[in-house]
Design goal:
Layout: H1 3-19, E1 50-52, H2 62-68, E2 71-78, H3 79-82, H4 87-90, H5 92-103, E3 106-113, E4 123-125, E5 130-132, H6 141-155, E6 162-165, H7 179-196, E7 201-203, H8 209-222, H9 226-236, H10 238-241, H11 254-261, H12 264-281, E8 288-292, H13 299-309, E9 316-321, E10 323-324, H14 332-348, E11 354-356, E12 372-373, H15 384-397, E13 401-407, E14 410-417, E15 420-427, E16 433-434, E17 439-442, E18 445-449, E19 455-456, E20 460-464, H16 469-480, E21 485-486
Parallel strand pairs: 1-11, 2-3, 3-6, 6-7, 8-9, 9-11
Antiparallel strand pairs: 4-5, 10-12, 13-14, 13-21, 14-15, 15-20, 16-19, 17-18, 17-20
Protein name: Glycoside hydrolase family 5 domain-containing protein
Keywords: Signal
InterPro entries: GH (IPR017853), Glycosyl_Hydrolase_39 (IPR051923)
Amino acid sequence: MTCKAMAGIAAALILAVTAGCDSPASVTPTASGTIGTANPVVLEGGAADIGIKWNWNLKPPLAFASKVGWGETFFEVEWCAVRDLPEANRFRQLERILTQSQQMGYRLMVKIRVGGCSGGPEQLDPAEGTRKRPSSLPDDPAAYQQFVTNLVTRYSPRGVKIWAIENEVDANNFWQGSPQDYVQTVKLAADAIRRADPQAAILDAGISSTGYGIALAGELLDAGHDQEALELYQRWYDRRHDTGTARFPLVGSVDQLRSLLQDGRAKRVRAMVAANWEAVNSGAVTAYQLHFYENPDLLPTLLSYIQRHLTRPLPIQGWEIGTAWPGDGYTEQIHGAETARLIGSLLAAQVSPVVYLPLAYTPGGATKVEIFRGLVSPEGQELPSGQVYARYAAALRASTAIRGVGFDGGTGVLIVGPSGTLAAVWPTSTGQLTLKEGSAVAASAPTTPVATGASVAGPLLIDLSSTDAEKALREVSSDLGVTVSAGG
């Protein structure tokens, strides 16, 4: 890479990092040569899809998923775990999950993992609280491809049209092979999927949300922007460091950050991120898989990074989107507000589907720390985040258009539908929004109407009568007393 290209990358990163929540929801590429993203993958009839990932054994929260009643969810199939089973038993678990999903109104997406054919120790998956066998290059590539072909041929006619190859290969508990072995595995699986169903959507493994912090900080440090790299790293892991649950340690200086990035774990992350970009840009996949659980202020930085690294237009699918926030600083009200910003920003950036994970926290032993925050409690009680999600899901189901919007002091998104428009708008930085007229709720308390003339520090969800985007812009402008324009 030339110095000029690296300088462009660094400038774009610095812009995104320093913008924070002042960045627009609809991200505009800033680096020379950026390809950007393609039109979103939409299968459910509206302008964008949404979804939820739940623990299949935690029953009370399923009432919420059933009430929403549409969208995507996903399940993981591991070749090594089932390849030696009798044909009649090989897909028994997948059959059960597919039936449950469809009965609840959800389209199932499938992650295909090789798993650990050599036996090896299982490692804990922190997102699900289960243990996984890390994958490696298939020991019998022909048999692996035949398995993938059989899987797709069997389930494509039953509505499974979206397939991901592996999962979070930058994490030790999911991938133990070399970076190039992963690239080869993607090509093997993608070739089999494409031959079995030429219309299928094929995705990469997705980089873990924590892995992106290493990738972004390392890119800045490589470009000589030491202080910006340190600030980004500290912001990325800030919430996880509060309780010691961070995958990477707290650093207080550029020297410490540089030393960390030379450590084996961080070096491996960067190598696997590079391999994932090689796989994505090789032509093997048809969409990019996004995982993100950090402070929504950092989302524009990540979206800009993805756009810069794509060498061809690809749609982005958000398979794992949520909030990782252990510790005493968490509140249900702030989580509700951040969920409105998070989902709204992704929709404005044409990400589809946006699958929230998890539906609910799965309780464990006395030492288990709640890291990933749900939409409902383990007992099934709706949280503000769940109420916000339900509003988005209802608006998206029959939506005809989505528009990112911006105005003096804020940003947001319009979801236009045949019976009205949902406007989700929020102030930049520490500002407030004042409801001049109209009907709205605050995302932090979605069941309580906001009084006319009241000022709110967080996002507002505003119901608009207009079924046309231009009319909706005029209506929300009147409700807020500011000129709201399309495009953020």
